[in-house]
Amino acid sequence: MTRKPLSGVFLLFFCMQLFFQGCASSERLTATSAATTALQDTSFSVPDSAQTLSAKLLAISDSAATRKFHELFPDSLQQDSLLQNTADSLKTELGKTKKPKGALDSAIYYTARDSVIYDLTGKMVYLHGEGKIDYQEFKLQAPEIAIDMQKNELHAESAFDSTKFGLAIPVFQDDSGEYEAAKMTYNFKTKRGKITEVYTQIDDGYYKGEHIKRRETGELYVEGGRYTTCNHDPPHYWFYGAKMKIIPGDRVIARPLVLYVEGVPLFALPFMFFPSKSGQTSGIVIPSYGYDSQIGYNISEGGYYWYINDYMDWLNEGDISLKGSWRMRTRFRYAERYHLSGNISAEFQREFDNEEGDPGFEKVDGWNVEITHNQEFDPSAKAKINLKFASQNTTAYSLNTFDATDIISQQATSYASFTKTFAEGQRSLSLSYQRTQELDEKNLSESFSLSLYQGQFYPFKGRRSTGDKIWEKLAFTPSTSMSGSFNTTESSHTANWTATSNMKLSLQHTFSSAFQATFSQSINTTGRIKHTAPYSDVSGVKIAMPLSMQSTLFGNFNVNTSLTLNEYLVDRTVEKIFNEEDSTVTEVETRGLNKFYTYSLTTSVQTRLYGVLGTGILEGLLGLKALRHTLVPNLSYSYSPDFSRGTYGYYKSYIDEDGDEVRYSRFENSLYSPSSGESQTLGISLSNIFEAKVKSMDSTKAIDDPSREESTFQFLSLTASSGYNFAADSLNISQLKLSASTTTLSPYLTLSASATYDFYTYDKETGDKINKLYIKDTGSPLRLISASFNMSSTLKGEKSKSLQGSPQGSLPGAQSPLDSLNRNNQDESSSGLVPTDFNREFGRNTQFGMPWQMTLNMNFTIDESDPLEPAELDAQLSTSFRISPTTNWQLRTYVTYNFSDHKFNFPTIYINRDLHCWQMSFQWTPVGTYRSYYFKIGLKAPQLQDIEVEKRDQPVAIFE
């Protein structure tokens, strides 16, 4: 319980009682048992009558004072009423006392475990044994504390045993941080102090000094100071300065400065300053010095970083070489957590090959621009933008900054999208943009699309209606979209514009328990414009009106039927005239609106057949309870007439020089043209699904749920499809397509395969397929056309719980909103491509917590579409392996081998070593186009990341 301060009247009354008792002499008054008190300057402003008795008070011994105090006032320190009365008597005797000059602004609260000693003559207070002081933002804990109330100062010292070994040291805290010191002096009024042999942590940095003076602003002046970000004892490295000035939250200034690593001085500077806080801060970006086979000796990636605020920053950096080549790059980055983030970067590089005047002299300029923006306006509106623009001079791209993914794929891919939903998802707006630029060729393709979608609604249904009437069941579903695509090569440019509008009216009705049907009528209108430079535009409109029915018969058969009527509007027709004199064909194109009609009919029937097999003894041995085979047959029929018949008028003919009739379409130069030849195709497909039911225990499900103690999974899927065209005069049988997949052991093992076969043989001279069954020619029923096989596997060990979070030895620090844009916070496996030495961030913040992980992916394809040529085989094996043999080592390998070319593609080995406050990284690509190595060792602390040693060997002729 906290006791109230002893008032002047209480002291006076206490002194008078002791005086009349005739106690022995002493120099001090002691209050024991961890007394807790609040002092102010007015506590010592007692009346003269009390001052005259102070000499008598000081003649009382410690033991007698304590004994007589408890005899006269038993339990007095716990009685709030008595203290309150004595406080009131003080007011009555003294009236209003004035606050002395130089008094403190607030009370000083203190406590001690052993004793609190008051020296009223010297106006001193002594705290023994775990003394604590609390004054405004200042807090102190020390074994020995002396408070001088006249000077408003305190003195704190350490406690030692008989061998001079320190038992406890003073620890104090204010708004600038927490400090440990052997001795200290602090002034409450000026908020200045002097500290001896201090140790403290400020802004993720650890400081130690022989003598420190603290100013009221929080700045520290250190003699014989050491600074480090290593929390190991002793630290693995530190900076020593005979004189240091520490500005908390800003910087450290030292002169001279000496870097020690494991106690060994490595280098010294006469003057140095560096940031003392983690995170972003403005300053000079230290460049790297190196040699490149293309541009020679160079200084790279040096510049200035401007930390604008917690939401924006700006980087300007570049390279310069002794051969005259140079590069400049600027990047502006912004972020507001949970709302938006993005960056805008631009780069220009000029590279010289050989000296000016030499026969092989060449100057190459290259540039690239990248714009990214991600924003969530609200849960219903989101925008994503990632745009990349680059020059065609790919040899001038900087490997330090250009995306390694684009370099390997030789493509710069851009995209942008915006989505917005309305009315709780019933309406939506979508806008997208795609751009692909070939870096090694002058090929560029772009596309965009805009779509509006309205969910199904019932326009004839009243608000209070039950919806039982036939017209109230009519549902309306509108949608519209617009798209454009552009393709540019070195010799041509093509643009396509498409606009589509769809209106669908549907009616769902149940005729009986065995027959339900949905009838729908749609009108799909598509308009297209095609522009091919330097030719004129070609345009056309297609209006499709499908009338369809989706029904369920007898509860087991799904029957779908559709009759589609198409109307086409085109802007030109053509007529061909044969010239008998020179046997040439003259083509006459007529501009103007023309139209033609087509129609088609499709119907399909699908059902499911089941077969279940009990496993008997396997249930007890393996937990396998049953196997189920599901057969899904699907029959479809489609019909389309021959629109080249003369009755339609869509085709014309002429007689060539051999007297043969040549038929041609009047609309062959238009965007749309009617097909020739009748089609009556019966398609068939069989899907086989194999499932297993096994014993399991899912405690998340209800006790009465049958699936609580068992689970079902699909372990194999097989599909076969083919068809027969009754209207064709030859080659009636379609190709047989087979596919199989299994995900039983996913993600540990996933398998898939597909194959295409033909029933007909081929001409031995031309290789063309002929109307003769392959089985009659060779005895084998099927001829392989193509096949593919894919296998992927991922195996990994469990992540070490002790290493989850930040890497070992890393220091916690505040993270600004911009940190979310840092690539270091991303797992390199998520991008699909491993990081390379092209990025100066390589190797930082490596996760050592995964014991091991292995991924394997194998693709095998065979192509025999040309039977006269040998089969084309293509096989590729990609694998990656990561292992952390200890908590501080990690080894990673990435390799892709192409069996067709017998070459490795970008095989790379990565080695990372966590050195507590340092980190070592090594990357080696032994063979291939990107053959190189890169070694770096540097500090992990964000504010000291530029202190590193690196050695690299850049790839040579990377784009050849």
From TrEMBL:
Keywords: Signal. Residues 796-839 are annotated as: Disordered. The keyword tRNA processing does not apply. Residues 214-244 form the PI-PLC Y-box domain. The keyword Repressor does not apply. GO terms for cellular component: cell outer membrane; transporter complex. One of its GO terms (molecular function) is phosphatidylinositol-4,5-bisphosphate phospholipase C activity. Residues 1-20 form the signal peptide. It holds the Pfam family LptD_2. Residues 817-833 have a biased composition (Polar residues). This is PI-PLC Y-box domain-containing protein. It comes from Chloroherpeton thalassium (strain ATCC 35110 / GB-78). The lineage of its organism: Bacteria, Pseudomonadati, Chlorobiota, Chlorobiia, Chlorobiales.
